[in-house]
Amino acid sequence: MTETLLLRPSSNAEDRFDSVVLDGDGCIVAQSTAERREAIELAANGRKIIGLIPGGDVLLTAVRLPPMAASKLRQGIAYALEDQLIDDLEAQHFALGDRVGEEQTVGVIARRKLQYWLDRFAAVGIAPRALHADATCIARKPGDLLVWIDGDEARIVPPEGATDYSPMALLEESLRTRLAAEGATSLGIWVYATPTDLERHGELIELLRRLGAPLQVHTLPSGPLPWLATHWSMARPLNLLQAEYAPRAAINLTWLRWRWAAALGAVLVLAHLGARELEWAHLQQLERDLDAQLQSQASMVQPGVSSADAAAAMLRRQLQRLQAGDTVDPRALRELERLALARAQVADVRVQRLQQRPDGTTVVIRTAAADVAEAFAEALRGTGVPLQPIEIRSTDSGIEATLRWRVPRGAQPT
Fold this sequence. Notes:
The protein is α+β, with helices and mostly antiparallel strands and 414 residues long. The protein folds into three domains: 4-247, Nucleotidyltransferase, domain 5, CATH 3.30.420; 261-327; 329-414, General secretion pathway protein M, EpsM (Gyrase A, domain 2), CATH 3.30.1360. It has eleven helices and 17 strands. The strands form four sheets. It has a five-stranded mixed sheet with strand order 3-2-1-4-8, sandwiched between helices. The chain has a five-stranded mixed sheet with strand order 11-10-9-12-13. Strand 16 (391-395) and strand 17 form a beta hairpin. It starts with a strand and ends in an 8-residue tail after the last strand.
């Protein structure tokens, strides 16, 4: 069964929410306070989202009207409540609740206020399926007045009739009036509050004992939302999202259910395209590296080769000479092999010029730094080349070094 996520905007920050997750049986399976957007989006995935807003922003009342179509009923309610509303009727949103006999329950909220709360949910990527005034989520308790203290305001929920709102400073008087109106001395008073609010209003709560009604005080250690969540399914609260504010369930809920799968599919497509692009870039880099190696190897045999095509053609001719049995200077091959071995160890070297004479060999290299040239010389000595002290010069394009060595006696001349 689909789980339900109840969200209540935090009073501490506009982008924070308290949350409770209920399973299909209405049992709490997870809860948190002051969660950020990322956690809320994760919790909302695949769940039915219910929003709770402060009950003080909503007028809950009943109007005696005959049964009629919802659109006409809203018009009739608007004119019936005209004297009770401060703002223009056009600035109000009317939500219809249950009908009890000839009376129609209704919730009235200023459109600007309703839009404010919807915008707070939208700011964290949430579109509630239903929106309730928090006090309407409290299930009535026969024989008792329920008092929920939330900050400096108290919600008074009687066994029957409309919920009252009272400033804490006037709570005792409000309850006294309510008890007198009920005409019953057997009513008990159950007070619910967080530890912080109990500490702040402890003296005012103790004064309620003077009313003569049995008083019970209950602590809400995790905040009011878990307590409201346990009442929510029993209270059948009025949903404010009606008429033009009604959610487009057929489209939005389907999208919300599959949005993560769709997002994952989009990511996979982008990743595939990105991988192909990276593969193409990698192949292009390999081609450039191969061209550079061709030019480097060819320049050891014939300095001055300036392109990969020319280097390939020259090396191809050398290979053809070898395959045809032409005479090749073994000393030249040996020295080229040693240069190649040294360059394999120190890659940041470019051979600019190679000159082989009967009495010795001269190689000019170009590097970015003198220590690279020294490293290349040391690598060349490691291959058995009797290298003389190198000459290093600084140029505009880097370091140029000249390496010389003499041919041992008995070596074949070039």
